[in-house]
Amino acid sequence: MNHMTNLPAMAVNLLTLEWVQLLASQELGIVNTQTSGKSSRNAMVESSWRFTNDDQKGFSIVRSNDDSSWRLEVDSEFDRQTISSIFQRACEAADKQDTGQDIYHEAVLTSPAPDINSIVSVQLIRLIEEGTVISGERRILLDRVLLDFQPESVDNNEAPWAPSTMIKVCIFAPGPCPGPFTNKIVEDYLEMARLICSFAMGRPVDRTNITADLISEERAGEARSKRYDRNILTLAKKGISTDLFEVFTTSGEEAMLKLRGALVAYDAAIRQTNSDIATILLVAGMESLCVPNADWRTERAVTRFINAGLSLCPDTIDEIIANEYFESAFNLKRKGSLAKRRRSVMNKVYDLRSRPVHSGPGMMIDPMSIGVQPGTQRVALLAHLLSGMWLSYAQAPRSFLTGHPQIAPSSSTSTD
Question: Are 59 and 73 in contact (CB under 8 A)?
């Protein structure tokens, strides 16, 4: 049996109902589950759950009128004491946060080769510099997700960063049986896998189906044999692990959520055809890494952003300053000391988080000159900066306390 810790109330309730489903199936042959009613404010799940056999006979678990507890409604064909025993045992298992045996699912992700619209878009330089071909098996989320990257062969007319890639995903989700608790976890794991693959490849990755499929017993045996195979390496980018669960186990949930938030922004940014929108999203991804989950987060935001970048990836900032596109992309000159140039870059980057909204979006005039457009160059450099910040934070999560009312109060000298 597996155990999880500190499950939220909604998850405990879903786990309880999944245990009811399993025990009712094993002991009474009841295999159907239906939900109805509004979501309960206290339980945070649907207020009525109906468990029936093929004759539609069974029992219901319904929230009380005051939404303080569950009550049983049992059809006359079934013994109420037996149903009560099932429900009590399910509650006990959920209270212990016992998630039973793992349930195996599989899904397919795809990353199509960039088409002509991508090649003549603001993503061109970024695709050439960041696009990465990955082949073979990898793992993420510790031992919870296996990935099998299967790129198509590259034709002579294709750039080496361009092959379409299919990614087979095998998910090991905790849960006593397929049901609402397990399905929610599968959905979360699959979406995290998609975002991580998109970041690692530097290209949009999409789902082929709305939901993942249960694995057959034959496929489950094959998956089990690979699950703990240490020859299957963790998915990395530039030699650094992209595994969010590694961060969770060492640094906690907040650090993991910051990294996941940055991945959401990155994934959205690399799909944009307008450089200003991509710029805003990339800067938002950087900001998600350094904004504290506290009411003082708006204090000295510029200084905190600059200090975060300087702390996380000074070498990446230096690479951007040295890049041939630097001056045209950011409309900055290489002048002053190294420290001054670094701060100037981060200050400019923060300013880009909202400037396009205030001044109006730029328009692409000539697709044939896309590679020399400042917007195209800027997107490539900002994506490189976000990647550097993300990878550094993943290796050593930290809090940026600039603006903290006691540790670094607003009265201190700042560049805000």
Answer: yes
**DSSP assignment, residue 261?**
H
Distances (CA, A) of 48 to 67, 94, 225: 11, 18, 40
Task: Write the single-letter amino acid at 187.
Answer: E
Closest CA to 284 of 299, 256, 264: 264
Per-residue pLDDT of the chain (416 residues; tens, 9 = 90+): 676 667 888 999 999 999 999 999 999 999 999 999 999 999 999 999 999 999 999 999 999 999 999 999 999 999 999 999 999 999 999 999 999 989 999 999 999 988 777 666 789 899 989 989 999 999 999 999 999 999 997 654 555 567 899 999 999 999 999 999 999 999 999 999 999 999 999 999 999 988 899 988 778 888 888 999 989 999 999 999 999 999 999 999 999 999 999 999 999 999 998 899 999 999 999 999 998 765 555 557 888 899 999 999 999 999 999 999 999 999 999 989 999 999 999 999 999 987 665 555 555 545 555 557 889 999 999 999 999 999 999 999 988 766 556 666 654 444 44
**Number of residues assigned to the chain:** 416
197: left (phi over 0), alpha (psi -120 to 50) or beta: alpha
Task: Look at residue 103 and give its three-state secondary structure.
Answer: strand
